[in-house]
UniProtKB/TrEMBL annotation:
UniProt signal peptide: none
Classification via SUPFAM superfamilies: 6-phosphogluconate dehydrogenase C-terminal domain-like, NAD(P)-binding Rossmann-fold domains
UniProt name for this protein: 3-hydroxyisobutyrate dehydrogenase
Organism whose genome encodes this protein: Roseococcus pinisoli
Residue ranges annotated for the 3-hydroxyisobutyrate dehydrogenase-like NAD-binding domain, each copy included: 160-287
Lineage: Bacteria, Pseudomonadati, Pseudomonadota, Alphaproteobacteria, Acetobacterales
PANTHER family (UniProt xref): 3-HYDROXYISOBUTYRATE DEHYDROGENASE, MITOCHONDRIAL, 3-HYDROXYISOBUTYRATE DEHYDROGENASE-RELATED
GO molecular function: 3-hydroxyisobutyrate dehydrogenase activity
Pathway recorded for this protein: Amino-acid degradation; L-valine degradation
Family the UniProt entry places it in: Belongs to the HIBADH-related family.
Length: 292
């Protein structure tokens, strides 16, 4: 069993740390929030006094923080984790952050960027997908630890490749969701039923995950957020954050992503209209509201 330091015990980090403790690992956690620390302690996660304290003496050091600035600070800032780690420790950042921050934090260290998909339900159930960038030896050591928190673990390449995979995937998801919503909104105007469009598109060339697993209108896929008034699921604010990261990456890499830019503008407008906290598939309501 491994000694694991875990920093960032929020909506995702807490259930992930809990799953590691349940598998018998010795987990010591740290979060700026006392409430998060108290909740973790009830789940068998030991209390560290600081991020550096959580890192000290651990075989694996994991962070699950909001954004690139928090990750840079926690690892590289004064009293940061990078300086406190054992030289042989494997370092894993699971946050969704910009590719540049991921590469800056990893520089010269046995570090993996390992963002996840699957949301809080996947974190609770231990069924997350991990997209991992970094050295092959570090990946091989970390794989059993990631398997305690997830079901699908993919090595995507060198440092930053995990974040790159996450950003490309989520940009594609945003674009396909908006396309699916536009198709349903047009069908409504043309007098075509939701069921008929679903029946045809789910079996033909319009098929996608946004349609068949996460259908943005109620009915065809009973478990989708559309059936519970767009309670998330995957909140619009998080999609907006990921689209900001994919556009930032496209700009610095010189890639043309005009539909990514359009998706970012639409989701920004949707969030600013008061829907930051609702599910991202609810953008169909904005399309209907803006129709002539
Ligand atoms: P969260 O805001 O619930 O948790 C973040 C935690 O980090 C908070 O408890 C905060 O107090 C703590 N924190 C911030 N700075 C810290 C520091 N310097 N030291 C210690 N603790 C610190 O966020 P979350 O929903 O758990 O998301 C974490 C990451 O996972 C984000 O990058 C997010 O984009 C990504 N993600 C989230 C989801 C989701 O559905 N929530 C899904 C996939 C990926």
């Amino acid at each position: 069993m491994a000694r694991i330091g875990f920093v960032g015990l929020g909506n995702m980090g807490l259930p992930m740390a809990r799953n590691l403790a349940k598998k018998g690992h010795e987990v010591r956690g740290y979060d700026l929030s006392t409430a998060a620390m108290d909740a973790a302690a009830q789940d068998g996660v030991g209390r560290a006094q600081s991020a550096a304290d959580a890192a000290r003496g651990a075989d694996f050091v994991i962070s699950m923080l909001p954004a690139g600035t928090h990750v840079r600070d926690a690892w590289l800032g004064a009293g940061g984790m990078a300086a406190a780690c054992e030289p042989k420790a494997v370092l894993i950042d699971c946050s969704t952050i910009d590719v540049e921050s991921a590469r800056a934090v990893a520089a010269g260290r046995p570090m993996l960027d390992a963002p996840v998909s699957g949301g809080t339900m996947g974190a609770e159930a231990g069924t997350l997908t991990f997209m991992v960038g970094g050295p092959a030896e570090a990946f091989a050591s970390a794989k059993p630890i990631l398997e305690a928190m997830g079901r699908t673990i993919v090595h995507c390449g060198e440092a930053g490749a995990g974040q790159a995979a996450k950003l490309c995937n989520n940009m594609l998801l945003a674009i396909s969701m908006i396309g699916t919503c536009e198709a349903f909104a047009l069908a409504e105007k043309l007098g075509l039923s939701h069921e008929a469009l679903f029946e045809v598109a789910s079996k033909s060339s319009g098929q996608s995950w946004s349609l068949t697993t996460y259908c943005p209108v109620p009915g065809p896929v009973p478990g989708s957020p559309a059936n519970r008034d767009y309670k998330p699921g995957f909140a619009t604010a998080l999609m907006l954050k990921d689209l900001g990261l994919s556009q930032q990456a496209a700009e610095s890499a010189g890639a043309a992503t005009p539909l990514g830019a359009a998706a970012l503008a639409l989701y920004r407008r949707f969030a600013e209209g008061g829907d930051a906290g609702t599910d991202f598939s609810g953008i169909i309501r904005m399309l209907r509201d803006e129709a002539r």
